[in-house]
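tool=predict chain=A
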Amino acid sequence: MGQASILVGVVIASLLLAGGHAIEQDSHPPQPHRHPEAQKLKNPISSDDASIADGRKTYVRYCASCHGPAGNGDGSMALAGGTPANLTDETWDHGSSDGEIFVVIRDGTSSDMEAYKDRLTEKQMWQLVSYLRSIGPKPQK
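tool=predict ok
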């Protein structure tokens, strides 16, 4: 195989690897917006004390380093140097329904807010939604 073929292969592989990330960022513009398809998703997990406690454990392990111990956006570990979202206020840039929050956790929004679909189960993500709901704004109808 010649050097040109190897170079083409490397370029194609790089584009494929970056492509999914570019799509995620393009589908999540920086200005506040809603996701109608995600709004249709309903949390299948009961928001009882046990699921909220399990969601809190997931939050402490995966989210608190960026979003802060209480969800105020005051963590110090944002990956690309951005400002983590305050999860306790009324401003949710990517929508505030349970389904929208789930999709943000699952798919990510940027190089700072990565996708967690390969690190968390769906149940853990829904429990995390329940926990975030317990510290943040109530669902919009």
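Helices lie at 3-26, 36-39, 49-62, 64-67, 98-107, 122-135. Residues 31-135 form a domain with the Cytochrome Bc1 Complex; Chain D, domain 2 fold (CATH 1.10.760.10).
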